[in-house]
Amino acid sequence: MNPPAFERALGTLQEILDGPGVRPELDLEDMPAPQSLAPYAAALSGSVYRDDDTEIAMGRLIVLYDPDGESGWTNGFRIVAYIRADLEPEIAADELIGSVAWDWLLEALEPAGYAGESGTITRAVSESFGDKRGEPSTTELELRASWSPTGDDLAPHVRAWCEVMCTTAGLPPSGVAALPDRPGGAGG
Hints:
alpha+beta, six-stranded antiparallel beta sheet, 4 helices, 6 strands
């Protein structure tokens, strides 16, 4: 039998999975959670797709719960997030992209309430050689973070993770439409 606080967390995750969807470009699924990090754990995976069904970002969100508490965990909860997104080479070359991505996370978490945040941002460039030498180089960003929610409602934390995943994929914020390319404009 799960503790009531963790049952509520599971209910929140299920509501998000069964709900109307956070964003149309985002696909969320339940996934097995690691069992060695806390007595209770649940996890989601997510993928962000372009219109042509190309995956441009993916991530995992793990909710950990220890009713006895852990040092630095608020309310017995800790959230662990991972996001990997393709980047344009010129964006990946910007030495500030790590700081900017970390700011995206903190800004998204601000309304949710968080404490004890920590994490890393990695930029990677993959080059092909040998029989693969004709393939173009790829660049990506990886965000690994954890934090403790300061309130009981985990839904804003899941939405924040979703929003950051979409932002790192280059999508505009929720509710904002991208400007179409137009002749003579910046995009065309």
